[in-house]
Design brief:
Helices cover about 25% and strands about 0% of the residues.
């Protein structure tokens, strides 16, 4: 949703160290234009460092009941009646390079 990872680093070890040293949080002043406070709260609850504090610890219903999903029709989703928000143009090859996030760096990438 935010377009970037909450914890930055050149490799997995640096990312892990960042996670262990700092709790990242979207502050009210940092909420992007067009976002609701519920959306920011949802992200903040998902990126908690300690698993025992994360949204969803008690199962998927805890996530589904969050205020950000207040008007979401889960039954329509289960029945596959909600159209996809993005459909890539039909290609014979499923790996169209136009849809690759160029900013992503794998652990093995220098």
């Amino acid at each position: 949703m935010f377009g970037k990872r909450p914890y930055q680093g050149k490799d997995r070890k640096e990312i892990r160290d960042h996670i262990l040293s700092l709790q990242v949080q979207i502050k009210k002043s940092d909420i992007p234009t067009g976002w609701s406070r519920e959306a920011a709260d949802f992200i903040n609850k998902l990126i908690q460092r300690k698993p025992t504090h994360r949204l969803g610890l008690n199962g998927p219903d805890e996530v589904k009941e969050h205020a950000w999903f207040r008007n979401f029709d889960w039954d329509k989703l289960y029945q596959k009646k909600i159209p996809s928000p993005f459909l890539p143009p039909h290609q014979e090859d499923n790996f169209d390079v136009r849809y690759i996030n160029q900013d992503w760096k794998d652990a093995n990438t220098e």
